[in-house]
């Protein structure tokens, strides 16, 4: 029998790919060749008028700006609280110590249907900077298999998009306070002034799910309790992590690497290891079709049945070794009933089964929820229903505010679970950019006509 070469991925029955854990060890912070034009610093003075305002400059905002560029829409301004494209995205991954993305090489904010350098091409162009393991991942991606992308490869690619699509000079550092749609315009109020636009695209991303108020009677969390996107005290010797998903796995792994004793509270009966939070078929057109056009109750049922917190396969061997060695204690099927300050500056968690777990710090990774526009748009414009906005399924514009569109997790009830993924951003962007550019042309705005061969209708 022929043996597989050392370091090769293991294959189980059928075509299931079980990746090796060393994929998680990709470098971070490598130097990458910069595009010819250096990115400009963000502006602090938003213009008073623009054809399109994009709220948020994360991966979704970058996708929208790049797609509008291809459609010839140049009068675009991106309003972002940090003023840096994808800045919050990478700050969060670095805070978690995350070195690779769950998304494969096909999932990137590049523009589909245009002659751009896509993420896989970008990695191949910089072959000499990849590790042997990463090169194998690229080969697997070329063969149509699942692949894992290093964070710094993705960051370099995003910087490439920023420069080549003229995004940097359109970003303004500003906090958006209010978006007021009207029949012929949209007024955007920020902490640095007001911008009047013909169209607005909301790309606000997702916010963390907060702990139930009953855990500590509401208000501020007890000392020593943090959420996943907040720093943890470096001198902690015993850490409690609450959560069942990939973020929790990163927190647990980081705590173990720091030499801490870790208690992991999983409120579900057990942890799930798989490629994504949802079945991969929802990332394909036929999967998205299962959501669009079906009755509302059926969509909710599909979300409830198929979306669940999961952890990348790569984590499993290391976490199982840590548990077997006693460095990691896992409390499965244990809901939290109370979190309070304990003796000696510790944090104490009371579990539903009666046990108490104490640590120097407790990190909560309870998931994220989509920002659907409430708080920015009038409630009547959002049309909130079961936590989702009412959208035009063809253009992803708000039904009651057609000059405002959304890209990101908020489009989940139209595109399905893939909407919150980077690849889903690209699908949503194709619809939004096509609709916005067409509207601007009909209204007589100065939109540069792209070459006929590069125009692509919404997907």
UniProtKB/TrEMBL annotation:
Listed Pfam families: Pyr_redox_2 (PF07992)
InterPro entries: FAD/NAD-bd_sf, FAD/NAD-binding_dom
Domain FAD/NAD(P)-binding span(s) in chain numbering: 51-269
UniProt-listed Gene3D superfamilies: FAD/NAD(P)-binding domain
GO molecular function: oxidoreductase activity
Basic and acidic residues compositional bias, start-end: 22-33
Name of the protein described by the UniProt record: FAD/NAD(P)-binding protein
Record lineage: Bacteria, Bacillati, Actinomycetota, Actinomycetes, Pseudonocardiales
């Amino acid at each position: 029998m022929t043996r597989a070469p050392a370091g090769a991925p293991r294959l189980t029955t059928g075509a299931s790919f079980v990746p090796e854990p060393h994929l998680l060890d990709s470098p971070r912070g490598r130097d990458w060749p910069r595009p010819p034009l250096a990115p400009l610093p963000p502006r602090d003075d938003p213009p008073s008028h623009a054809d399109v305002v994009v709220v948020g400059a994360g991966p979704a905002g970058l996708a929208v700006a790049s797609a509008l560029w291809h459609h010839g829409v140049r009068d675009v301004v991106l309003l972002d609280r940090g003023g840096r494209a994808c800045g919050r995205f990478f700050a969060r991954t670095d805070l978690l110590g995350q070195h690779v993305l769950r998304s494969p090489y096909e999932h990137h904010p590049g523009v589909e249907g245009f002659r751009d350098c896509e993420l896989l091409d970008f990695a191949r162009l910089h072959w000499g900077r990849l590790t042997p393991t990463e090169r194998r991942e690229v080969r697997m991606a070329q063969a149509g298999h699942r692949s894992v992308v290093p964070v710094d490869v993705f960051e370099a690619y995003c910087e490439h998009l920023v420069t080549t699509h003229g995004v940097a000079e359109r970003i303004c550092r500003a906090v958006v306070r209010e978006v007021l749609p009207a029949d012929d315009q949209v007024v955007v109020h920020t902490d640095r002034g007001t911008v009047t636009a013909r169209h607005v695209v909301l790309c606000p991303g997702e916010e963390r799910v907060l702990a139930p108020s009953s855990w500590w009677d509401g208000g501020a969390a007890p000392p020593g309790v943090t959420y996943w996107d907040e720093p943890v005290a470096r001198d902690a010797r015993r850490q409690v992590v609450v959560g069942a998903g990939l973020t929790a796995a990163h927190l647990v792994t980081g705590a173990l690497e720091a030499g801490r004793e870790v208690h992991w509270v999983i409120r579900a009966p057990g942890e799930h290891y798989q490629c994504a939070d949802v079945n991969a078929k929802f990332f394909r057109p036929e999967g998205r079709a299962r959501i669009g056009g079906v009755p509302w109750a059926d969509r909710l049922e599909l979300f409830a049945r198929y979306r669940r917190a999961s952890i990348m396969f790569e984590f499993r061997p290391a976490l199982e070794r840590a548990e077997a060695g006693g460095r990691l204690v896992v409390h499965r099927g244990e809901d939290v009933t109370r979190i309070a300050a304990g003796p000696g500056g510790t944090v104490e968690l009371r579990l539903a089964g009666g046990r108490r777990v104490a640590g120097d710090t407790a990190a909560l990774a309870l998931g994220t929820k989509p920002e659907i526009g409430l708080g920015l748009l009038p409630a009547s414009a959002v049309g909130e229903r079961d936590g989702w906005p009412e959208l035009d399924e063809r253009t992803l514009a708000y039904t009651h505010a057609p000059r405002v569109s959304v890209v990101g997790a908020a489009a989940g009830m139209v595109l399905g679970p893939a909407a919150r993924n980077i690849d889903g951003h690209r699908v949503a962007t194709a619809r939004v950019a096509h609709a916005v550019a067409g509207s601007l042309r009909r209204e007589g705005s100065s939109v540069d006509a792209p070459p006929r061969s590069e125009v692509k209708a919404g997907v």
